[in-house]
Every structure is written in structure tokens, then in C-alpha cells.
Specification:
Layout lengths: L2 H10 L4 H8 L3 H10 L3 H19 L3 H11 L4 H13 L2 H9 L3 H12 L2 H18 L3 H13 L6 E9 L17 E9 L10 E7 L2 E6 L2 H16 L6 H5 L7
Antiparallel strand pairs: 1-2, 3-4
Length: about 250
């Protein structure tokens, strides 16, 4: 069997022009020439049918599954691919480096962040994060809305509080008088949670019982405001706001 005949079978099995050219030590243009001159149309039709089936199968995959498939085809090494996936899982370059390369922490502290700074590694991380956000149905505007909610949060949205006065009485029920013979008055305070069905709970970071009663902690609205200001400045200077700005919020790069 001649080279171009063997190459035709490889092509039908799904090999790309470049892979065929490398296999037979010829140029890509030569492979394309074989296709136009020697390969049969009915076989090409069969190949097109297989490609269509493959495309249909890929179309049913989730965005992250397709992104991981693309990661498998990327030019970075297998260990670098493993590092990308582990970093996305734990958001810690040092620990991801230890997990993948099986080195001590001192070595990982130096090499982990350095590998994370590699342009190809960064591109794969951004691509996979974007795919995950797409799969979750989250975009930049969704996350910006969350930051606005946090920036505008007020404790008064969740707790009612106030004060009231009451007369000081003795054990007999008689009103006590002060030195000016005026009734003694106590000033007391009260606080009460609002019904959770009537509030937006997203800005609440935690609710716990303290020694003096319930304690409500909201997300840091100053931090949210600072981030929004950064985005507004970026937008006002005609700089495109990439979705990666949002997907990397609160990620520890070390």
C-alpha cells in the first residue's frame, strides 16, 4: 500500500493533517495534495459522517468537559496539566506543586508561584475558569450585582432595635423616687431579628450565638466598595473588564 493510501486510512480514523505529515515525514501541503488527488469522495463522505458524529458528541458535553478535553490537547506537559487542574481545585500554587511534583515545601514555595506565572499555564487556567462560569450560568454582571448588594448592606436591614422607658418600682409595686422626689425611670434597649422571608440574606456572612445573644456578621462592604471603584475606574478609562477579574476574586495565588 502506498503512502497516500495509508494516509487516507489515517485521515478517516480521525488523524489531523499535521499528525499525518509527521507520521510520514512530509509537509502538510503534501497531505492536502494527497487528499485532493487520490482520496475517494465516498470515503471522504464517510469521514465527514464520522466527523459530524464526533461534533455532535462534543456538543453534548458540558463546557468544563470540553475545556478539559482541550487541555489534554494543549502543548503544556502532562504534569503542567495536572498542576492546572489541582490549582483550580484548591487555588494554592504551592500546595498544587507539592501534590503534582512530590517535592518539599521549600522547593514548592519557589517553583509553584513561578509555574503559575507561566503564560501558557495562565491561559489554560483562565480558559477553564471561564468554561466553569459558563456552565454555572454566571457572568461578570451577576458577580458585580453581588458586590453591589454587599456594598449597600446595612445592619438595619436585618435587625430592628430601639429603646423604651419604664418606672423603677420596689418589691411592693410602689414607684421609687429620686432625690428630687421625681419617679425613677429606667432606660432599656431591645433588638429583634427581622423575618428571614422578608430580607435578602446574601450579604450575611455568618450568624452565631455569642455570650450576650445572637451575633450577625455581614460581608465587608468596604472591600466590596473598593473593588467596585476599581472596576468603575477601569471602565471609565475604556479598559475592557474581563470576566477573569471576577473569577479570581478571593483566590490565593500562593
Amino acid at each position: 500500500m502506498k503512502k497516500y493510501e495509508e494516509a487516507e486510512q489515517d485521515y478517516l480514523s480521525g488523524l489531523k493533517y499535521k499528525d499525518i505529515a509527521d507520521k510520514y515525514d512530509v509537509s502538510i501541503s503534501t497531505v492536502k495534495s494527497w487528499k485532493s488527488r487520490y482520496w475517494k469522495f465516498d470515503n471522504v463522505a464517510t469521514k465527514d459522517k464520522k466527523v459530524a458524529q464526533k461534533v455532535a458528541k462534543v456538543a453534548t458535553k458540558k463546557p468544563t468537559e470540553r475545556a478539559i478535553d482541550e487541555l489534554s490537547d494543549s502543548k503544556i506537559t502532562d504534569k503542567q496539566k495536572a498542576f492546572v487542574l489541582d490549582y483550580l481545585r484548591i487555588s494554592n500554587a504551592t500546595q498544587a506543586y507539592i501534590n503534582v511534583y512530590n517535592v518539599d515545601r521549600k522547593t514548592a514555595l519557589a517553583n509553584g508561584p513561578r509555574l503559575l506565572g507561566n503564560a501558557r499555564i495562565q491561559n489554560e487556567i483562565k480558559r477553564l475558569r471561564k468554561a466553569k462560569l459558563q456552565e454555572l450560568g454566571v457572568d461578570a454582571f451577576d458577580l458585580m450585582e453581588d458586590m453591589v448588594v454587599e456594598a449597600r448592606a446595612d445592619i438595619g436591614d436585618y435587625i430592628d432595635f430601639g429603646r423604651y422607658d419604664m418606672l423603677h418600682v420596689d418589691s411592693e409595686g410602689d414607684v421609687k423616687l429620686d432625690t428630687d422626689d421625681k419617679p425613677e425611670i429606667f432606660h432599656k434597649s431591645w433588638a429583634q431579628f427581622k423575618d428571614k422571608d422578608k430580607i435578602d440574606t446574601k450579604p450575611i456572612k455568618s450568624i452565631k450565638m455569642g455570650k450576650d445573644g445572637p451575633v450577625v456578621e455581614l460581608h465587608d462592604r468596604n472591600k466590596a466598595r473598593d473593588k467596585l471603584l476599581e472596576l468603575l475606574k477601569s471602565d471609565s478609562s475604556n479598559t475592557k473588564i474581563e470576566i477573569t477579574q471576577f473569577s479570581e476574586i478571593n483566590h490565593d495565588n500562593n
